[in-house]
């Protein structure tokens, strides 16, 4: 009951929030919209820690919640599905996700989501809608390292919901320095189905796609630039994919 994660947050509280959210995620993903998930069997083949999921990003919250729900279903023996009771009764909690601190502090709902495994970091290039330049906070990278040593981490190399934006080198530095298993994830359909935050439904009956690919064959001795290029190709966000959808 009083077990905590590596950041001192109570696991029972994380489970409680996930259970409270599960009726809403199930309705939004499994009933109001259609889902198309492929490759979720991989979740059951991965080690319990030092796994980094890299993904494109279409809304602030909806695609993350979808990944978590699909992850939970796979871990209960229902891969490639969005079901309710399997996720509700046995929510999978050994994961974290990287998010901008200003996003996670922007309201009551984001602050609740923060308790489900957010690694809140300070963006080095943008804040409050303005372009900025600042050094990477050492505490942020240490938090990601700590999370990887404990479980799975989801990150978004582009740091934005805009498509085909170049990836940030920070992701490649994490890969090079901490040598995790890197699993590419591609999402689609969320921009059509939801508003930018992913809280309001924009179009019912949309097909929400989630593709979990095999781990990348990473040479950790490669340059940061080469690793980032490999990641961006894998999540289908490099320039050569622009205009293909």
Summarize the structure.
The chain is of the alpha/beta class and 245 residues long. The chain has helices spanning 11-31, 62-75, 85-89, 101-104, 108-114, 138-150, 169-178, 190-193, 224-234, and strands at 34-38, 51-55, 95-100, 118-121, 126-127, 130-131, 152-155, 181-188, 207-212.
Instruction: Count the E strands.
Output: 9
Overall residue-averaged pLDDT value: 90
Shape: globular
Widest β-sheet, arrangement of strands = 1-9-8-2-7-3-4
Question: How many domains would you count in the coordinates?
Answer: 1
N-to-C terminal Cα separation, in Å? Answer: 47 Å
* Share of residues in helices: 25-40%
How much strand content do the residues show?
15-25%
Which spans of ≥5 residues are poorly predicted at pLDDT below 50?
A: none
N-to-C SSE string, H for helix and E for strand: HEEHHEHHEEEHEHEHEH
Helical/strand content category? alpha/beta
Please give the radius of gyration in angstroms.
17 Å
Can you summarize the main beta sheet? Answer: 7 strands, mixed
Would you kindly provide a written description of the structure presented here, covering whatever features stand out?
This protein is an alpha/beta fold. It has one domain. It is 36% helix and 17% strand. It contains nine helices and nine strands. The strands form two sheets. A seven-stranded mixed sheet has the order 1-9-8-2-7-3-4, sandwiched between helices. A two-stranded antiparallel ribbon has the order 5-6. Helix 7 crosses helix 9 (224-234). It is globular and about 45 Å long. The model has no long low-confidence stretch (mean pLDDT 90). InterPro entries: Plipid/glycerol_acylTrfase. One of its GO terms (molecular function) is 1-acylglycerol-3-phosphate O-acyltransferase activity. Pathway: Lipid metabolism. Pfam families: Acyltransferase. Keywords: Acyltransferase, Transferase.
